[in-house]
């Protein structure tokens, strides 16, 4: 527990009109950690990530990155500082090619290593290399998820926020995506992973948080949560 806290969410509240979707969430992500946030549909996981990146306004509480409040900062500022989100639904630029999408991922950079990094992404995802000239919109769901992850890596993230990367994918593709998430983490990228696939997300996590109806109801290390009878009953179908 001596690692620096990179991301700290404290007492976060977010509302849609009169509906409180997030009701005072507190969580932290330390340097080098992979933290999984799990919970049922509508628990408020995505909303929490949206508040971190400023897509959804914060009603109360705060989000701090590297010890500084993120309130009032835009997506570009965050990416420039290494806080990068891969949204649910991937958000690739459908009318651009794979290579162009990857170049877009480096939009906050002005160094000369962008082409080298594209080659590194192709090393992680050979499929993207094969399809480099193809329009992103014509790729399968799994390929688009790979592209979204590759594009995020192009920003050289310090902290990656990943929203439901396994959503809608075939079992083989789910395996591949979790494998890559674990690999990226091993290479030193800190991650906050939001997932409905609780067993897979907790299996690769250092720590996890369980969200129910807008609140964090349990937290602990990934293995301990995976073995917890309450978690198993509620999220692992046992
Ligand atoms: P899922 O896994 O299904 O995406 P989640 O845990 O990510 O679930 P959220 O998407 O954060 O949950 O939704 C939390 C609550 O806020 C839900 O009750 C949802 O209906 C509501 N909500 C989400 N987005 C909006 C919106 N744009 N307008 C109104 N209510 C919303």
Automatic annotation (TrEMBL):
Superkingdom, taxonomy of origin: Bacteria
Protein source organism: Leptothrix cholodnii (strain ATCC 51168 / LMG 8142 / SP-6) (Leptothrix discophora (strain SP-6))
The protein's name in its UniProt record: ABC transporter-related protein
PANTHER family: HIGH-AFFINITY BRANCHED-CHAIN AMINO ACID TRANSPORT ATP-BINDING PROTEIN LIVF (PTHR43820:SF4)
SUPFAM superfamilies named among the record's database cross-references: P-loop containing nucleoside triphosphate hydrolases (SSF52540)
SMART domains hit by this protein: AAA
Keyword Membrane: yes
Keywords for the protein's UniProt record, in alphabetical order: Amino-acid transport, ATP-binding, Cell membrane, Membrane, Nucleotide-binding, Transport
One family name in Pfam for this protein: ABC_tran
GO biological process, one term: L-amino acid transport
């Amino acid at each position: 527990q001596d690692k620096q806290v990179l991301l700290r969410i404290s007492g976060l509240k977010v509302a849609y009109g009169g509906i409180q979707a997030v009701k005072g969430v507190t969580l932290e992500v330390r340097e080098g950690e992979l933290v999984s946030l799990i919970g049922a549909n509508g628990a408020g996981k995505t909303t929490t990530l949206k508040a971190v990146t400023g897509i959804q306004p914060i009603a109360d509480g705060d989000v701090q990155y590297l010890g500084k409040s993120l309130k009032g900062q835009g997506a570009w500022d965050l990416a420039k500082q290494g806080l990068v989100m891969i949204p649910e639904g991937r958000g690739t630029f459908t009318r651009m090619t794979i290579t162009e999408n990857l170049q877009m991922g480096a939009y906050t950079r002005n160094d000369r290593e962008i082409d080298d990094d594209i080659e590194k992404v192709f090393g992680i995802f050979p499929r993207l290399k094969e399809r480099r000239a193809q329009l992103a919109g014509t790729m399968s769901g799994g390929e688009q998820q790979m592209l979204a992850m590759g594009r995020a890596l192009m920003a050289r993230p310090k902290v990656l926020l990943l929203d439901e990367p396994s959503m809608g994918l075939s079992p083989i593709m789910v395996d591949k995506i979790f494998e890559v998430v674990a690999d990226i983490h091993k290479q030193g990228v800190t991650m906050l992973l939001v997932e409905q696939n609780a067993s897979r997300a907790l299996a690769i996590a250092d720590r996890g948080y369980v969200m129910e109806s807008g609140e964090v109801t349990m937290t602990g290390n990934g293995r301990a949560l995976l073995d917890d009878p309450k978690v198993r009953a509620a999220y692992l179908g046992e």
